């Protein structure tokens, strides 16, 4: 018999009754019923119940061991009585009567329980991540991630893509976030940058003639944490294709995402094909460029209704309305609750009206609306008895943010929200440029390497703020999975686009010399995208926080509490790297 096991803890069944077995695993739980010990033994593959009779050496040995001790046990498989079968457990028809025990790894008292989610705080969990990963939910999430990545590789290869690796140590690049820098020992005063994305390299692979590339790519960005964004590093399905237009990229990614979410979505429906929503339409209808289409409500611009209205609170402002049908049975608590929710998201309040059974209006602002206002609102919103209407007024961006959140919350509270479904969409036609409100400077709004719609002619003849780009985002259930674009592969177009954004020709050549040089030697039209693996797994696992799908994530302050990173280095190492430190001064009393 093998030194440690003849079977795993998850594979024994009724057909194995009367078999002598050897198992190894962690002591998951222990129950003493009248001197008879029942032990749950756990390994990677599952859990099995052990039984140790009173007065036996096995009972004596197991009774004193702490939870999470690693043991090897020998014993015989016996059937459970029909009243004791555990239908929730694959091994629930049997148990193993233990005859011999060997301790393989002792366990100190645990900082938190493993066999229950006891509400321990995240910092503690990350400090002892190796224990946290033993929990069933976390173990399942990491295995899901492994399976998803394996499936992605299989699907991309089947579609004719080639997996290739790109450099980790490279030059800094303006991807929109801060680089992580690596000092060079051989070149004093110079730094490598960890890639924010393999953007330039994957384009260079297209120029080199490889046609279809993909990679499960590590990316590094020095940015703050969010629930759907891990600080430090993340992984993405990096994709690039030659001789394609936007729709070609969509067809590939829609197939991969649909197949992936159907395979791992536990029966949740995937809506297909994915609708294409222009950026400005998304902001107007949903208040967001990552709309949650499970919410079956839309915002409507009613600014014109109040432009010359006597209702001074709305006059001259951008006003967005949200009509919610079938609210006749809702109490005042429903309206007040949404008002409180809007305030939590930055509103000063939430104006509303409702249409009563007889067609008359009620609500805090109903008395301020003229007959003309009511008629215009009825036509614009299709109002009928049972409708409630919520209003947001202010500047466009502020109203979009607040009413976009209210739209989803109102749909959930009023029963207009789809559950158990993955609703994807493409957001298209992003503006190529935007204006910085503080400086007035024209900047790239998305990816600087994107092809403008209309090419060089558009850059030379149009107002920069009116130019659209061949840029797109893929969104699922209100989560942005990725941005992508058809790339700018023409040097003249690239020079002009960067000129509009304030870069001189010399700066462009200095920053992107490799790319420009490549463009001048025959570059094919190409485009790509890079859906985030962490976010894909987060959606499939139905987890609200992305760190729950990563084995060893940094915490919200970009610290590795388990390994103690970031850490200090000694003076000799700094000297070798030609570095000296200038730490921020701490004021007295701080």
Describe the structure.
By secondary structure, the chain is of the alpha+beta class. 28% of the residues lie in helices and 24% in strands. The chain has 17 helices and 24 strands. The strands form six sheets. It has an eight-stranded mixed sheet, sandwiched between helices. It has a five-stranded mixed barrel with strand order 1-2-3-5-4. Helix 4 (136-158) crosses helix 16 (533-540), helix 7 crosses helix 11 (396-414) and helix 9 runs antiparallel to helix 11 (396-414). The longest helix has 23 residues, at 136-158. 34% of the residues are buried. The model has no long low-confidence stretch (mean pLDDT 94).
Main traits of this protein?
single chain, 590 residues, alpha+beta, eight-stranded mixed β-sheet, five-stranded mixed beta barrel, 28% helix, globular
């Amino acid at each position: 018999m093998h030194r440690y096991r003849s079977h795993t803890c998850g594979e024994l069944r009724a057909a194995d009754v009367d078999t002598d077995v050897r198992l190894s695993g962690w002591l998951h739980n222990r129950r003493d019923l009248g001197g008879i010990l029942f032990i749950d033994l756990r390994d990677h593959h599952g859990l099995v119940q052990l039984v140790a009779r009173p007065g036996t050496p096995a009972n004596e040995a197991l009774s004193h061991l702490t939870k999470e001790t690693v043991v090897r046990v020998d014993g015989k498989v016996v059937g459970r009585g029909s009243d004791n079968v555990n239908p929730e457990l694959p091994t629930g028809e049997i148990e193993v009567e233990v005859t011999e025990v060997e301790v393989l790894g002792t366990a100190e008292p645990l900082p938190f329980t493993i066999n229950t989610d006891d509400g321990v705080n995240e910092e503690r969990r990350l400090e002892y991540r190796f224990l946290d990963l033993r929990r069933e939910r976390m173990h399942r999430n990491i295995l899901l991630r492994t399976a998803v990545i394996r499936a992605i590789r299989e699907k991309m290869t089947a579609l004719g893509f080639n997996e290739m690796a790109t450099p980790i140590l490279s030059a800094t690049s303006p991807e929109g976030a801060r680089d992580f820098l690596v000092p060079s020992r051989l070149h004093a005063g110079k730094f490598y940058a960890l890639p924010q994305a393999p953007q330039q390299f994957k384009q260079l692979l297209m120029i080199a003639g490889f046609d279809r590339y993909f990679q499960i790519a590590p990316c590094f960005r020095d940015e703050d944490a969010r629930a759907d964004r891990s600080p430090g590093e993340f992984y993405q399905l990096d994709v690039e294709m030659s001789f394609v237009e936007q729709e070609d990229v969509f067809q590939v990614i829609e197939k991969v995402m649909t197949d992936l979410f159907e395979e791992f979505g536990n029966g949740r429906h995937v809506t297909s094909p994915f609708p294409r929503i222009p950026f400005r339409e998304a902001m107007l209808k949903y208040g967001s460029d990552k709309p949650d289409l499970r919410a079956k409500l839309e915002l409507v611009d009613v600014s014109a209704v109040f432009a010359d209205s006597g209702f001074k609170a709305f006059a001259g402002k951008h006003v967005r309305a949200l009509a919610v049908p079938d609210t006749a049975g809702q109490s005042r608590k429903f309206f007040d609750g949404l008002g409180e929710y809007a305030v939590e998201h930055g509103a000063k309040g939430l104006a509303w009206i409702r249409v009563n059974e007889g067609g008359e209006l009620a609500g805090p602002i109903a008395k301020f609306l003229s007959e003309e206002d009511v008629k215009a609102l009825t036509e614009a919103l299709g109002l009928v008895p049972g409708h409630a209407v919520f209003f947001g007024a202010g500047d466009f961006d502020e109203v979009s943010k607040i009413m976009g959140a209210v739209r989803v919350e109102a749909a959930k509270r009023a029963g207009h929200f789809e559950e158990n479904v993955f609703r994807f969409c493409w957001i298209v036609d992003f503006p190529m440029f935007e204006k910085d409100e503080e400086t007035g400077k024209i900047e790239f709004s998305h990816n600087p390497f994107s092809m403008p719609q209309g090419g060089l002619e558009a850059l030379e003849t149009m107002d920069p703020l009116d130019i659209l780009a061949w840029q797109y985002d893929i969104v699922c259930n209100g989560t942005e999975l990725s941005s992508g674009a058809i790339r700018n592969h023409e040097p003249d177009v690239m020079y002009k686009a960067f000129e509009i954004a304030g870069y001189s020709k010399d700066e462009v050549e200095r920053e992107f010399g490799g790319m420009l040089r490549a463009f001048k030697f025959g570059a094919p039209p190409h485009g790509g995208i890079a859906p985030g693996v962490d976010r894909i797994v987060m959606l499939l696992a139905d987890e609200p926080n992305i760190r729950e799908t990563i084995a060893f994530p940094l915490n919200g302050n970009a610290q590795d509490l388990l390994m103690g990173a970031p850490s200090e280095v000694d003076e000799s190492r700094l000297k070798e790297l030609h570095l000296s430190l200038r730490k921020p001064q701490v004021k007295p009393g701080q």
